[in-house]
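hey
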């Protein structure tokens, strides 16, 4: 499985001049990771420590990054939290991304089946449309966050207007793709849901009675949707069969 690596992001950033002072807001609970301290020492970073309601790092008020260590990722997968978190990230107004931190050894020591981890990653990237970035340690994670900020600063240039014009269309595509993961919801119903409720969050929080008002969604489908969103724990067989899952 191919991941976006720090080297690939850095290569693009180095080629173009980036303005200094990238604003990064770090969740106060991330202090223990050591990443905020590393970011604070970077001369082109303006770091703020706050309590974020979602995610771990808000970069340039545009990209919301969730950082997970190998242990965090596996535990959230095993207890069923991972996809609920992914749904909330995909529904937020900022562009979401996930940084997975850990060496190949860290991932091999988890005791979780390789297929379960790969299936979760495919779901994050292809179903929820959330980019997954890889970092071996805190230093590399901090630099990835910085490079993300530099790219966003570059895109503020008016010469990148075509990217801005396409942003709204890409967001709606992601929203429709997310809704189509719900039981009984195809392309047309996803569009109807989004047009009716106005946002992914409103769709996900709608009670059964309101869901039944949508053309083509009956009581059984509405109840199936609500049941899916209850985030019951998902059980996976706990055995890892080896291999370097995250090596590009």
């Amino acid at each position: 499985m191919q991941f976006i690596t720090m080297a690939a992001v850095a290569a693009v950033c180095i080629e173009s001049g980036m303005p200094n002072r990238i604003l990064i807001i770090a969740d106060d609970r991330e202090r223990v990771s050591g990443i905020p301290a590393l970011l604070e020492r970077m001369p082109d970073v303006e770091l703020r420590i706050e309590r974020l309601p979602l995610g771990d790092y808000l970069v340039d008020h545009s990209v919301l990054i969730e950082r997970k260590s190998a242990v965090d990722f596996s535990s959230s997968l095993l207890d069923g939290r991972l996809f609920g978190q992914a749904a909330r990230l995909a529904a937020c107004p900022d562009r979401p991304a996930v940084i997975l931190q850990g060496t190949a050894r860290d991932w091999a020591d988890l005791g979780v089946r390789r297929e379960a981890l790969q299936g979760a990653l495919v779901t994050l990237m292809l179903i929820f449309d959330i980019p997954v970035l890889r970092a071996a340690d805190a230093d590399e994670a901090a630099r990835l966050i910085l490079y993300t900020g530099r790219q966003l600063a570059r895109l503020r240039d008016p010469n990148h207007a075509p990217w801005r014009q396409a942003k709204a269309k890409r967001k709606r595509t992601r929203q429709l793709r997310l809704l189509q993961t719900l039981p009984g919801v195809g392309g047309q119903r996803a569009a109807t849901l989004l047009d009716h409720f106005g946002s992914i969050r409103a769709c996900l929080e709608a009670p059964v009675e309101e869901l039944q008002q949508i053309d083509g969604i009956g009581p059984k489908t509405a109840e199936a949707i609500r049941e899916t969103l209850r985030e019951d724990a998902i059980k996976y067989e706990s055995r890892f069969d080896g291999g370097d899952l995250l090596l590009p």
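The chain has two domains: 6-156, 160-228. Strands lie at 22-27, 45-50, 57-59, 63-69, 95-101, 132-135.
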